[in-house]
Write a structure and sequence with these properties.
Elements: H1 17-32, H2 40-91
Length: 92
């Protein structure tokens, strides 16, 4: 699988400075490593582990977004309840 040897910063999928530095370091490490051919079985193992990790990360991000959205709804609901009660108390 050929991925090329050069990555423009604009191609870094929105990476910021620290992430870009990490990408550059990993590219240099990969370039300096011995080029040994992987067996098809090993490639498949690596691919499966990568996809499993990507799926776990996707699920983790979804859970975090759900938690934050739930917390925001709870806070807004609480605030609205306090505002309504305060107005009702002022009119009574």
């Amino acid at each position: 699988m050929e991925t090329g040897e050069h990555l423009e910063q604009a191609e870094a999928w929105g990476a910021d400075g620290a992430e870009w530095a990490r990408i550059e370091r990993l590219l240099q490490l990969a370039k300096s490593a011995d080029r040994e051919e992987l067996s098809p079985e090993r490639r498949e193992q690596i691919r499966e582990r990568l996809f499993a990790r990507l799926e776990r990360d996707r699920i983790r991000r979804r859970r975090a977004r759900f938690f934050l959205a739930s917390a925001a709804v709870l806070l807004v609901g609480t605030l609205l309840t306090k505002i309504v009660r305060a107005r009702l108390a002022a009119h009574a």
